[in-house]
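Render this sequence as a predicted structure.
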Amino acid sequence: MTPDHVWSTLSAACTTPGHPLRTPTLATIDGSTPSLRMVVLRAVHPEAHALVFHTDTRSAKWTQLQDNPAASVLTWDPENQIQMRFSGQIERHAPGSAQAQNAWGQLPPHTKATYAGAAPGGALEATSGTGLDAFGVLVFTAQTLDWLHLSREGNTRALIDFATARVDWVAP
């Protein structure tokens, strides 16, 4: 395992439907309570240690990230028995931003339609969404990675600090 391998694996997940790393769990903070949900990995920027997700700006996570940009991302690869826990910060890109406009232009119509209905958690009858006006981009910049490989031959674990490129092998 190397940091380059981590980023190339995540990059492949973006374009491979059904890849187990394509839908990681994103954790944000709601006041003092962790809040978790599955998200779809849309892009990876290895040189920036960044993962990109799309979101409805009317969702709870959008507001939570405004109040506290700290976040964690968890992936699990059941075939290879590898868990990755990233910690970092999220930058929000609101409707109308260059990042949101560019991402929106690449979405298929059926995905765009998901932003035109009711706000997440809202009444089903509501139609307050206007598509592009409710579409935002989240860029998660990883600061650290806790990488764990489970194996009958012996579990292995590494802690990676992306700022220093330091990799420490530790007890699992």
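Summary. The chain is about 20% helix and 40% strand. The helical segments are 3-14, 60-67, 98-105, 109-113.
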